[in-house]
Design goal:
mainly alpha, two-stranded parallel sheet, 70% helix, 18 helices, 1% strand, 2 strands, 391 residues
Amino acid sequence: MSKRKAFVHFVTAENVLFLAAATMLAFAARVRFFPFESGDYHQFLQGWFSVLKEGGGLAALGQNIGDYMPPYFYLLALLTYLPVRDLYLIKLLSFVSDIVMACFAMRLVRLKYKEFWGEITYAVVLLLPSVVLNSAAWGQCDSIYTAALLACVYYLTANRPNAAVTAFSIAFVFKLQAVFLAPFLLLMLLRHKIRWRSLLIVPAVYILAILPAAAMGRNFGDLLTVYFRQARQYSDISMYLPNLSVWYPKDTPVAAGTAIAVLAVLASLAVVLLFHRLEFDLTDEMIVSLALLSVLFVPYVLPYMHERYFYPADILAVIYAFYFPEKFYIPILTVLSSTYVVCHNLFHAHFINIKVLSVLMLCCLLWVSVSTVYLARDEKIEKVVRRRWLS
């Protein structure tokens, strides 16, 4: 039975009822946070929505509204036609994205289990405190690009490289943080899981994403360089993500921060080359492990990272724990860290030293790294034994 047919096979009445109940419970968990107005809502989201609504919705897309890529503004513009308060519409959009993200998490776990664990994954992802707070309290849209990253990983397990690169491209045109998965994709290229010509999909999707805004009057050159301007916006080397940067002096010069960023990129390339030299098959377990390692490693070593940038790692860590139940502590630690820093931003919570969380995240990174290397070694040994037995 193919993976595609297997997915259809497991959709039963009981599954649908469970998923509906989980979705309703997840919505109920979010409702109490809907009236909460975050600092980002007052500083950015409210103003963006107001400009779009006053400008006629889609007709306002030609204005230079904010520092996000246009696709998010396309969605907000469509929402302006609904007679509902902007705060609730913004958060409902994020909740819908949460559902899509949970669906791809479910599909990834269903590749391993024929039982009910895919549906359990769906419920767990929707009810993660870091996910609930991100969409329902903060009003952020991190689940949009993370859902696309999960789709990328899923399509690679299904041997659909073009669909995987398209999914990554969609993630990229919503958030620059999609590059956290870039080392993983580079390894897939080196291992011929993805063809090099498939990379042409990335600029094609990018151009398609900005064309409507350009057609409405926005400067095409500005649209091409959105992410370059974003990268220059912040000068604080640590922005409360529990990563390596919390150990650097707060007044670290920009030149030193740039040098650290270059070293982080080189370290990522070194890790990719290390795994490229190992002999292993790209099983579903290995793909999930490598994807988690990528979204843990990159934001941990890079400077200038915001507090919510381990969001993709939270979701992939949950999937990883379903693939490797003995590693149940990985998502517990990642979600604990993410939830705390979100609460610090939203509610000014301050009862854990951020450096302690940085050490915990380093332990997660090391455990996943070592486990992935051992998994590759075990696959190599199994392959050698199989060859000798067949010969």
